[in-house]
Amino acid sequence: MSHIAHPTALLEGHFARDFPEMAIPWRAEEAPDPQLLVLNQPLAVELGFDPDFLRSPEGVRLLIGNAVPEEANPVAQAYSGHQFGWYSPRLGDGRALLLGEIASADGKLRDVHLKGSGRTPFARNGDGRAVVGPMLREYIVSESMHALNIPTTRSLAVVATGRPVQRETLLPGAVLTRVAGSHLRVGSFQFARATDDLGLLRRLADNAIERHHPSSAGEANRYLGLLRDVISVQARLVAQWMLVGFVHGVMNTDNMTVSGETIDYGPCAFMEGFDPGAVFSSIDESGRYAYRNQPLVAEWNLARFAESLAPLIHDDEEQAVALAVEALNGFRQQYSASWFNGMKAKLGVSDRVDHDVASELVDELLGLVQESRADYTSFFRSLGKAARGHAEPARGMIVDLAAFDAWLERWRAVTPDADAMDRANPIYIPRNHLVEEALSAATEGDTGPLERLLQAVDSPYSERPGLEHYAAPAPESFGPYRTFCGT
Which residues are marked as active site? Predict the structure, then answer.
């Protein structure tokens, strides 16, 4: 591996230096013929990179960890995790590397992280590689989530490696370059707790406070403050997923960040026909991570976080548990408030409207939408037209017209704000058939559909002529949708 010294974007090694117990120095696998498939130019600039440099052969090699600056110290991070409810004490980055941290324009540290960069000591039986399709899926969906104003890890680039990867068939290999506030997860704390090294656990918690939740440093019990802050950001995050119909698909504890960013877009998808039981992961046979279960799973994951932090919250175990349970009791309240306020925004209902009236409007409408299996995104967007007096597009999606007309009358009586609704209800999401179309074309070497889809979802709330194709639900022939994480 060669080293480069590039004048922009200093890659630092904070995690590698501060947590040697949780970081194995490692190198990315050398790619035989790296080719840049997509580069996130605005994000590159935000991080202090010269986009022209990143497009150069040496820049592309930096993006996949084959040419790293002198000061960088790439590491595979250790963490534990509950996967589908089963505890694995030693997961870690099996096919990923933390290249290092960059101070972005706002002065905050951001992780630069690789996915698909080859086997590490955590790889178990995997080959450590990734393929073009799933890496581009993460790029599309994470950038769409960012455009929807939902906290998320970002995608800087996807680079084809020039090496075929064996899955069901031979597929072209790729590496995703991902950017995050950090990669500290509930699973990171589970790992530190399992070592029985209280010093390590404390350092990790202090790092999370300094990096993500500085307000809790001023509290009488800073670690209880950290727990409360993580509960708050996760309650808001999951409410935002639910409001746009996003199904994460693999909410293991190693895929829940302490920063409150969405991480790991494996078997994820946006729901089309409204179905609380929607599942898109090929391996989620019991529906553990179905759309409707996401708040319950988030609460369960946060309980595992509380267990990990307990020795820091109080020396006395009983006291620690009592304090943690009290904090966890706040999750449902905060989630419900975030979700309900979001639903009121989707319906254009102001805070001046009586709570019970607003609640009845929300509950009754969701019942009608569910009964009709109406397209979630299209229906709520079309309600904006109904608020302007043009109800037919929305009516056309509902089965029980008499009930809907009665609902419309009561809803119009509270004078919904149509412009506010358009700011809360996206018209363009990465619809599953369009994502698959873009991935298939890119796998064959044509990135045109990918670029056009990215342009559509980049401004999800503003309707633009010529993009009707991107607002339409999947054709009947598309059938039931399942996704695979690509390992």
Answer: 254
